[in-house]
Amino acid sequence: MEKIAFKMKLKPGMSAEYQRRHNAIWPELTALLRENGVSDYSIFLDEETDTLFAVQYLSGHSSQELGKEAIVQQWWDYMHDIMDANPDRSPVSINLKKVFHMD
Fold first, then answer.
1. Residues 84, 8: Cα–Cα separation, whole Å
2. Crossing angle of helices 70-79/27-35, nearest 10°?
3. Confidence (pLDDT) at 1
4. Does the structure show a pLDDT above 90 at 60?
5. CATH 3.30.70.100 is held by the domain 2-96
6. Residue 51's beta-bridge partner residues?
7. Which pTM value belongs to this model?
8. One-letter-per-residue 3-state SS of the chain
9. Mean of the per-residue pLDDT values for the chain?
10. What are the boundaries of the signal sequence (predicted)?
11. What pLDDT shows up at residue 13?
12. Of the listed 22, 61, 80, 101, which one is catalytic?
């Protein structure tokens, strides 16, 4: 199993709305993630910079690789107004390099 991390960016003042939407995440979206090997997925917020820090374990595809799936595109449409997004409405996502790990 692999662990990856990436960061995304919220628009200013959108942290409460981001959390509200994720508290009601669509069951079909979480099912797709699990079916494709994503587990133990956490997102953290740096409130000073509105930067989101995501970590997930993979035994298949990362959530960022499922963009061709209809439910993922619908989620992007739903979320693009509160975070930095690409022209296809996917979140701007920057992979992070692991520099330390403690077992």
1. 7
2. 130
3. 84
4. no
5. yes
6. 9, 46
7. 0.89
8. CEEEEEEEEECCCCHHHHHHHHHCCCHHHHHHHHHCCEEEEEEEEECCCCEEEEEEEECCCCHHHCCCCHHHHHHHHHHHHHECECCCCCECCEECCCCCCCC
9. 93
10. none
11. 97
12. 22
Active-site residue flag, 80: no
Domain ranges, ordered by start, for the chain: 2-96
Residue with tokens 């979206």: 29
pLDDT at 47 (0 to 100) = 96
pLDDT at 42: 96
**Is residue 46 within 8 Å of residue 60, measured between CB atoms?**
no
Closest Cα to residue 64, out of 55, 87, 47, 45?
55
- Tell me what pLDDT residue 59 has: 84
Structure tokens that stand for 40 in this block: 């133990």
CB of 15 closer than 8 Å to CB of 102: no
How far, in Å, CA of 8 to CA of 38, rounded? 18
Position of tokens 């200013």? 12
The answer to whether residue 62 scores a pLDDT higher than 80 is no
